[in-house]
UniProtKB/TrEMBL annotation:
An annotated Gene Ontology molecular function: endonuclease activity
Domain Putative restriction endonuclease residue range list: 25-173
Name this protein carries in UniProt: Uma2 family endonuclease
A family per Pfam: Uma2
Length: 182
């Protein structure tokens, strides 16, 4: 088996500026609390690769929620910490640093894999107007896979986040953005 190549379209969390690191840390704490409360067989690895089908490269998401029960079906998990199947990936969260990567490239590839839920945390309102509207403002875009295509719902200010993966999650967009102001 030849080594897997991957493209890192984003810096690793330790090399990001403080704001996205705080947001990532805050969300990991909230999600871990929620999946433990619900007794779900989930985990969030420190680092793992998500590889689209028929591709030799993949992504290292900011937050990757794994369904541990499906990892036995992942052919690359044991040797390369790589997941390729939607059944292993209930949720991915990216904090925007280079908006074109998160809104264009990853959105397309995550949809192709069949990942049911994908969040883009655009805490600085960097995304293109067609993605976050005008005037540009901090926005959380939650993409849900419906009949094989992503449909988006956006959250701003004090709007409560609605997540099918965690329906009882009690967070607003503003709480997430404020985590970056630590």
């Amino acid at each position: 088996m030849k080594p897997l190549k991957f493209k890192r379209l984003k810096a690793s969390p330790c090399s990001l500026p403080p704001a996205p690191c705080y947001i990532i840390g805050f969300l990991i704490e909230e999600l871990v609390t929620e999946y433990k409360r619900l007794k779900l067989s989930y985990s969030i690895p420190k680092q793992a690769l998500v590889k689209p089908p028929e591709s030799e490269s993949g992504y290292v998401p900011d937050i990757l929620l794994l369904n541990k029960t499906n990892l036995v079906n992942e052919p690359l998990w044991q040797k390369q910490s790589t997941v390729t199947q939607a059944a292993s990936i209930p949720l991915i969260i990216e904090v925007v640093s280079t908006w074109r990567d998160d809104y264009l490239t990853k959105l397309r590839d995550y949809e192709e894999i069949g990942i049911p839920e994908y969040w883009i945390i655009d805490y600085l309102g960097l995304g293109g107007i067609r993605y976050i509207g005008s005037p540009k403002q901090p926005t959380i875009s939650i993409y849900l896979l419906i009949e094989g295509e992503y449909q988006v719902r956006q959250f701003r200010n004090d709007e409560k986040i609605i997540s099918p993966t965690f329906p009882d999650l009690n967070l607003t967009a503003q709480q997430i953005f404020q985590a970056g102001n630590m």
